[in-house]
From TrEMBL, chain A:
This is CheY-P-specific phosphatase CheC. Gene3D superfamilies: CheC-like. CDD domains: CheC_ClassI. The keyword ATP-binding does not apply. One of its GO terms (molecular function) is hydrolase activity. PANTHER family: PROTEIN PHOSPHATASE CHEZ.
UniProtKB/TrEMBL annotation, chain B:
Probably deamidates glutamine residues to glutamate on methyl-accepting chemotaxis receptors (MCPs), playing an important role in chemotaxis. Its EC number is 3.5.1.44. CDD domains: CheD (cd16352). Coiled coil: none annotated. It comes from Paenibacillus radicis. This is Probable chemoreceptor glutamine deamidase CheD.
Length: 206, 164
């Protein structure tokens, strides 16, 4: 884990700013979609033991809806947009006038809509980040899953598994007013990507 | 389910249980939950394996519980210390799912099936029979093994609860 233990407070601040810019644009995109103000929490950058990553969204067994995109290009990584079921229902009813309350689960159509929302938001996150850093970052085709948070997030941690038991992630939370809608963005750059991001932003690392 | 003597096994972690204690690990995705059980001494062991082989490790101090090829020998050793006879031991495993499907998958994205293969290899090398498995698919699992019976309970969001 030596790679991360030597991160300075300043470098963590740079990563926070990375999260801020990306998620700021994504929040704007969501706000336009909903035609409502969307608040965003200050991004958190943390080096978390694998065990604790899922706790950020309610614990390993919490059922969540996740849109996953693999980021390809010069600074590869994994990206998740995670929402709780309640928020997903609210998002669907606001955007598509779908009323899913009656039946359990989700139709193909609903999952596809959520996947597309995740895709739009992640796309705006990444494109603003790519503009800012002048690095190419292209999202893969998105994939959506409704499952336990632990099972979903562990998928994004495999690259870290080879080098330690914790992962560095940039996390941002959205809130639509009265907290009806809460969404989490996790950007988990591959371990090798950090130096590229720092270099692109003119932060010198030895 | 009575939650007495519940031993939690974290991600990239392993542990053993005796005297009717229950071992549990949550949120298995591409990871494999491997359990070994000696039905006579009633010693159970569980490992939450994250990666197939320690050859790819780039960490300075290896966490043996994380890799299939190191976790299984360690688990066998721990169970022997607790009085298990590994010649009687049987294995059950669950997990190794492919959580998201993509076209043009790189090898690291196929991690679930590779974890399963590697666990099966290691068990064969140690001459332990796999009597039941619930692997693959595209969904997460939470598993529990009861050291008094050796029954492995598997919970998933879509398919509910099953026992093997």
């Amino acid at each position: 884990m030596s790679l991360f233990s030597r991160f300075e407070a300043f470098e963590l601040d740079v990563l926070k700013e990375v999260g801020n810019i990306g998620a700021g644009n994504a929040a704007t995109a969501l706000s336009r979609l909903l035609d409502k103000p969307v608040d965003m929490a200050v991004p958190k950058v943390s080096l978390l033991p694998f065990e604790e990553v899922a706790n950020r969204v309610g614990g390993s067994e919490q059922v969540v809806i996740a849109v996953f995109l693999r980021v390809e290009g010069e600074a590869p990584g994994n990206m998740f947009f995670i929402i709780q079921e309640q928020s997903a229902k609210s998002l669907l009813s606001q955007l598509l006038a779908l009323r899913p309350e009656e039946q359990e689960g989700y139709s193909e159509m609903e999952l596809s809509a959520l996947c597309e929302i995740g895709n739009i938001l992640a796309g705006s996150y990444l494109s603003s980040l790519a503009d800012f850093t002048h690095l190419t970052m292209a999202p893969s085709v998105p994939s959506v899953a409704l499952d336990m948070a632990g099972a979903i997030l562990s998928y994004g941690l495999v690259q870290y598994g080879e080098m330690g038991d914790s992962a560095l992630l940039i996390e941002t939370t959205f809130l639509e007013d009265r907290q009806e809608l809460e969404g989490h963005f996790f950007l988990i750059p591959d371990p090798e990507s950090f130096n590229k991001i720092f270099k692109a932003l003119g932060v010198t690392t030895e | 389910m009575i939650e007495q003597n519940l031993v939690k096994v974290g991600m990239a972690d392993l542990n053993i249980a005796v005297d009717g204690a229950v071992l549990r690990t949550t949120g298995l995705g591409s990871c494999v939950g491997l359990t070994l059980y000696d039905p006579v001494s009633k010693v159970a062991g569980m490992a939450h394996v994250m990666l197939p082989t320690s050859d790819i490790a780039r960490e300075s101090a290896i966490n043996v519980a994380k890799y299939a090829d190191t976790a299984i020998p360690e688990l066998i050793g721990r169970m022997k210390d607790a009085g298990a006879n590994m010649r009687r031991a049987i294995a059950k495993m669950a997990g190794g799912a492919q959580m998201f499907a993509f076209s043009g998958q790189s090898d690291s994205m196929r991690i679930g099936p590779r974890n399963v293969e590697s666990c099966l290899d290691m068990l064969a090398k140690n001459m332990i029979t796999v009597i039941a498995q619930d692997v693959g698919g595209n969904y997460g699992r939470t598993i529990e093994i009861d050291s008094s019976t050796g029954i492995l309970t598997i919970k998933s969001v879509q398919l509910g609860i099953k026992e093997i």
